[in-house]
Amino acid sequence: MELDKAFSARRRFVSSYQAVVPPVRNLIDNWVFGKLNADGVDAAPLTNDYEFVRRLHLDLTGRIPTVEQAQAFLSATGNDKRDKLIESLLSSPAYVDQVSQWFLQRFQVTRSARYISIPERNNFYYFVRQFVQQDRPYDAFVRDLLTATGDTDTSPGIALLGRQVTDFYENPTQDWWDSFTDLSTTQFLGLKTDCISCHNGRGHLEKINLFLTPKTRHQFWELSAFFSRTRIQAISDDSGGYRTRLIFSDSQTGAYTGNVDPSRPGPRPARDGANPQPYYWFTEQQVQSGAWRAEWARILTADRQFARAAVNYLWAYFFGSGIVDPPDGWDFARVDPRNPPPPEWPSQISHPELLEALADEFIQSGYSIRRAIRLIVSSNTYQLSSRYPQGKWLSAYARYFAKRQARRLTAQQLYDSLTTATGTEAPIPVDGMADIFRYANQLPHPRSSLDFQLEQLLASAGAGDWVNQLPNNQPSLYGVLDFFNSNIVAGRTRAWSDQFSPQTRLATWVAGGLSDAEIIRNLFLATLTRPPTDAEVAAIMKVSQADRRMWLTSVQWALLQKSDFGFNY
Amino acid sequence: MNCGCGTHGPYTRRHFLFGGIGTLSTALLRTPSDAAQSSANPIPRATAKACIFVNLSGGPSHLDTFDPKDGPWNPRDADIRQYPGNIILSRRFFPMLSDMTEHLCILRSVTSWEAAHSRGQFYIQTGHSFNPAFAPALPHIGAVVSYELGGKGPLPPYFSPNPAGDEQRHGFLPGRNAPFSFSPQANGLNNLRHDFYGNQSLAFFENAYNLLQTLEEPLRSQPLSDDMAAYSAMLGQARALVYNPAVSPLLQFTSADEARYGGGNFARSLIVARNLVRSKLGTVFVSVTHNGWDQHARQFDTGNGQNIYRLTNELDRGLANLIADLRATGDLSSTLIVAIGEFGRTPGLLNNRDGRDHYRNVMSVLLAGGGVRGGRAIGVTDATGSVIDDFGWSRQRVIYVEDIASTIYSALGIDWTKSIENTPLGRRYIYVVGAETGAYGPVEEVFA
Hints:
The complex is a heterodimer.
Chain A: H1 4-13, H2 27-39, H3 49-61, H4 67-75, H5 81-90, H6 93-107, H7 118-134, H8 138-147, E1 150-151, H9 159-162, H10 173-189, H11 217-224, E2 230-236, E3 244-250, E4 279-280, E5 285-286, H12 292-302, H13 304-319, H14 352-364, H15 369-378, E6 407-408, H16 411-422, H17 452-460, H18 477-485, H19 487-490, H20 505-511, H21 516-528, H22 534-542, H23 548-561, H24 563-566, E7 567-568
Antiparallel strand pairs in A: 1-3, 2-3, 4-5, 6-7
Chain B: H1 13-18, H2 20-29, E1 50-56, E2 80-83, E3 87-90, E4 104-110, H3 117-126, H4 141-149, E5 158-159, H5 201-221, H6 226-241, H7 255-260, H8 264-279, E6 285-290, H9 308-328, E7 335-341, E8 344-345, E9 358-359, E10 363-368, E11 376-378, E12 380-381, E13 388-390, H10 401-411, E14 419-420, E15 429-430
Parallel strand pairs in B: 1-6, 1-7, 4-11, 5-6
Antiparallel strand pairs in B: 2-3, 4-10, 7-10, 8-9, 12-13, 14-15
């Protein structure tokens, strides 16, 4: 964000320069390369095949390719081999794992939250997976999430709202309505409205959000009023009230008022005089029926901002930052190039026309997530290298998406790539689920497994608990120490197998009598998805030891610690 | 509600000094060549070698902590007493600190710029105003201290054992200044050894690590991103900790110690902070978070999970034992302890939910050790804690977070008027905005 000024400054000074950009493959490249050309900023070259196959597997399946998968792609011929790989991964089961995990991490329906039981979490998990697998229209999916009724243990999709109910017995029902509203606007419009759920924007948000500054708490209540016919009851299966389930239902009557049970005032200030009618002032829509929550879902998903926010969230997943950034913190007064913000405010948007074009495509495709992803990864913009041999990389170029932003693997990607590289996938049992998972991105939550070592590794790699700690893939010293020395990593590096070590690929190669050179080459392909350089082979041979198994174990360990294993680049 | 939005009332001194956000951001964006050089060249106190920064997250009420007053809002058992140097404390809330006021220096004439948690937290963590455009790039004060004083031992210079969820990190500074975060446990960190191969373990690890460094060299010298550069640097930092017999005991503690410090994450983090600072193995800044101070409702209700009794008693035991332990080994005089929250809370009577809401105008900060002269309170507020009546220091104005940050830097021997010209962002980073012109500076009165 801080780069915005540099962003526009560059445009002024270098407009005569003819930028070097790859050919245009689709509408994304039109806009991204067009801007690079206009501003005289070079694009990075296109990835080579090694980088591409690794990146695409990580992004679409959450793990690096196996040796076999990589070699199949590398040895393929034909100009359309990348498109074929894209198609094959988009229809793979692992795509469902990864894209579902992305949604699950956003929605954070977790056992650690109050009133989310294991059956409820698992139920929600399968609802999300089914949506991804069938590529159901995203707008219909969101309407289901927002209008679900019934028992949280059995009713599909209801846990997203249930997750917001954090203190059922202490807070008034208005509080849940307000929380549902902020959840809806944040997740589905990219706009956090929590601030004006407690107070007017004026006097609070002048330095934070220009759009929300003139908005009032009353206006927030007009949104929240859509939920005011939603009733929530809590029932418990045991006399201690230990495991509470919530029952959601809707009434055809009722309205939002400021009347609150004085014994449970809740965290938000008193709602004196609140008496709003439901009004979706973003697009000036009023209710057309008495089913107000259904009206909310209908109006919200028909708002063009719903499509914009969705494709922008997706874009940020693939590129590391949004076209509007941050994707969950839009300021509508700073995203319209026809109405630029005051000069001291940076614009939030880098490619306004591209965002509109992506939103158009998304709507026309029937809100297909899979098609939107296909469009993104098929672009040459996505296929740019993370290296920048053109010259000095300025951080201002990041908002041009002029190269790939190399980033640390997420915790789940790290574990799944570790097991893929070493061929040590193992069953991961999960409470209350009959399915046996093998990858961390198949888990409903990073702390849902019964495998303590796995949980520790995910925690040190920044998986978070989705309640107090959000996922964070910035590298950390603690995480490095854990990956250096945890048993779960060390056990997967060995050139032999015993009761402490699973059968690794390396052990298989050693037992199979492969030569040093063959094994080193295989280790590189399996771990780094590329062959070793001559210098690397020489460095490894130079430290070869009498104990061949210990030596090869140290090679596997070192490759797993290298930044080109631990990064998505 | 931690709603993350800002409150600022009528125009403040800052607007007159710096023209508010507009000119401030323009100043930050200026290219290095036309930035004014700071010319103050002050002489820092250099009385401390390390800082333990106790972050009272949520914004503690000054009235219920370090600036108590007689009033109907107090519970009957508050037992408010006066001590030498005009220090006033509740013996019920702070029984142990009440007996060691000779080590405490309490600032009561402090004003926060903010009344929203996230912005206020950002301010006390960085010494800078929150601006959404620049926030991610701005380092925590601990990272700046690490940048200045780090690299003098195997330990990471900057620890944050139990960081708050929104804690600022090293910003644009190199990754070696990132905080080392972990959840302290009695038996320490289990990942400081690689004992998988019996008596060959150390040799195996050294060989494997050396090979890693050889293979990593091309990406270490030409990293593909800032995060990758940070990661590459961390490999070496991690190596310095593994199989280091001086390091692992520092992260361990006995259950007796934990109980003495009051138990829980806060207590454990303080014990680890004590150990790290005492070891003098390179740690210069430890940030320890004490959560739960956002007491909007039922603040004296002991049936309420977190309440003033519990919070103050936790803080009391933790801080008092920390001070006593550091003093026992002669390390108190070289360790600056700062306890600060993001703002004060509404003065006088409790609100209609028996709590207190956010209040900018008055807050209290506690200092001890590191060259600070104890047994003193600076500043006087009125009978309800609403207004500052006497600033109590030479500048004859309220103390701002910028002044606190300058004081921390000065105590640690860091020129608080410094700036870094050529940041990777292409703009100047000023340690304390306004200090380079003299508008802010250390509270010299706290030093002996």
